[in-house]
Amino acid sequence: MSEAAPTVVTSHRVVAAPAEQLFELIADPARQPEWDGNDNLVEAAPGQRVRGVGEVFSMLLTQGSVRENHVVEFTEGRLIAWRPSEPGREQPGHLWRWELEPLDDGGTRVVHTYDWTDLTDANRLVRARATTADMLGASLDRLAALAES
Fold it and tell me: InterPro entries from the xrefs (predicted)?
């Protein structure tokens, strides 16, 4: 009997950069392809910097499709989460979250989460199950390298 994949996957690390600097890299979709550890993102139009819940930003994916990302959690400099969907379609229920906690030494504890607990699109289940903490960690590592350079 095989064990079911967890529906919430998390990775975290400490980055030697201020939370505000890291948040700018995350909240500006045009910067996201620079640190995407899954090499899934190609580009996003400039000028989509997220400023609050309810905003939507678009991203071109490596397979050539576009995703609209609906911001569902937001605290400037500390928290951002979005639910992707195909343009004009209902959100299938998975969520990407970034949490930043400033540390006394000027660094930041960064937590990256993929939550597919509410995923309703059966076509996405295989990919959701294959998303691991190591994959999230690759994005954290690239984000850290970019911010610390």
Answer: Polyketide_cyclase/dehydratase (IPR019587), START-like_dom_sf (IPR023393)
Contact 80, 62 (CB under 8 A): no
Number of domains present in the structure of the chain: 1
| Beta pairing partners, 15 | 108
For 109-121, the pLDDT digits (tens) are: 999 999 999 999 9
| Sign of the alpha-carbon torsion through 139, 70, 63, 42 | negative
Outline where DSSP puts E strands in the chain. Answer: 8-15, 41-43, 56-61, 66-75, 79-85, 95-102, 108-115
Rounded Cα–Cα distance for residues 16 and 1 (Å): 43
Over the stretch 30-48, which tens digit does the pLDDT of each residue have? 999 999 998 899 999 999 9
**What CATH number does residue 119 fall under?**
3.30.530.20
Spatial contact of 30 and 43, defined as CB atoms under 8 Å apart: yes
* Domain assignment present for 11: no
